[in-house]
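Q: Please design a sequence for this.
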């Protein structure tokens, strides 16, 4: 397992990260469809991941209504893990109660959220604390000052954000630089061979600003696993149901699945492993998240770290899900590209 720096810090995290939204089934029905793993199953999954070289776990206070964090904390205790060897990322900002202030990125909510997460995780600090969603109702300077205070208190080591746009991240880090506050070092975003919106603005921005990218949705809810086919085979199995959401072009998605399956067959790997490996070949990516219900699924996903894709294979996958250029950038790209040799 290779390790990469988190953003512009000295913290090293495994290039594969164990996502924990399959842990517990509290709250709404959606968490039960993700996995609803009980503690013995969680212990087995976490133990397998750590044995495979993963040192990075990602959770959130809204996952299974807090039960995911509870099970992560119990797993660390049951497996007698050394806290210093584990990097824990959690997120806050989603709704955690009925009260009007039980959501968002205000000082009140984030301060309470950290205390609640620490209690559930059975730890006195979080390595990476992320704002789960951009909150238009809270001034960014309030959010950043609250996060900076949490870092100063030792309850949080580094901060980041999830599902922010490029301009929101740059505005936040601009305020942090001006005011001498802790900046966002990581952003957790959706990215896969078939969902490429991050490549318009966020990926170039992150590379330029040395912000780590943590990828969620690398398999598009299982749609890129290879178990679903264009003819409908496999439909109805699992939470993906075999059909892409309306924002994803169906024909393009199954073109991608067929390419992943073909490349996988040549390398004696699964389509899912190739999909994960494609992301691991992107220099701007810090870590790719995956969820698992069993140790066997963990082991399969770990195999992605050993897959070497050729330049031709990467280019073929790049082209299948490539974004259609907007008119303005398309029109001026020649002038911009002419300057690349001097960059």
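A: Design:
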């Amino acid at each position: 397992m290779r390790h990469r720096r988190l953003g512009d810090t000295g913290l090293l995290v495994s290039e594969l990260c164990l996502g924990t939204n399959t842990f517990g089934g509290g709250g709404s029905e959606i968490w039960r469809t993700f996995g609803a793993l009980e503690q013995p199953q969680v212990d087995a999954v976490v133990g397998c991941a750590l044995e495979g070289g993963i040192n990075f776990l990602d959770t959130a206070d809204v996952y299974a209504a807090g039960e995911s964090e509870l099970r992560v904390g119990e797993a660390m205790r049951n497996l007698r893990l050394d806290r210093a060897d584990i990097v824990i990322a959690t997120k806050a900002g989603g709704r955690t109660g009925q009260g009007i202030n039980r959501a968002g990125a205000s000082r009140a909510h984030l301060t309470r959220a950290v205390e609640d997460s620490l209690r559930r995780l059975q730890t006195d600090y979080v390595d990476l604390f992320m704002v789960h969603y951009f909150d238009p109702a809270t001034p960014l300077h309030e959010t950043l000052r609250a996060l900076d205070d949490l870092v100063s208190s030792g309850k949080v080591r580094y901060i980041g954000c999830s599902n922010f746009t490029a301009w929101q991240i740059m505005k936040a880090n601009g305020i942090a630089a001006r005011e001498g506050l802790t900046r966002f070092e990581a952003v957790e975003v959706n990215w896969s061979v078939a969902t490429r919106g991050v490549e318009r603005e966020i990926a170039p921005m992150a590379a330029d600003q040395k912000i780590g990218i943590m990828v969620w949705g690398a398999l598009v809810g299982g749609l890129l696993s290879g178990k679903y086919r264009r003819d409908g085979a496999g439909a109805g199995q699992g939470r993906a149901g075999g059909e892409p959401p309306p924002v994803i072009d169906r024909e393009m998605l199954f073109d991608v699945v067929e390419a992943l399956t073909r490349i996988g067959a040549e390398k004696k790997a699964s389509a899912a492993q190739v999909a994960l490996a494609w992301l691991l070949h992107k220099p701007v990516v810090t870590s790719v998240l995956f969820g698992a219900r069993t140790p066997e699924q963990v082991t399969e996903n770990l195999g992605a770290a050993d897959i070497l894709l050729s330049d031709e294979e990467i280019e073929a996958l790049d082209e299948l899900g490539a974004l259609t250029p907007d008119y303005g950038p398309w029109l001026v790209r020649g002038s911009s590209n002419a300057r690349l040799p001097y960059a």
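Q: Thanks. Anything notable?
A: The chain has twelve helices and ten strands. The mean pLDDT is 95.
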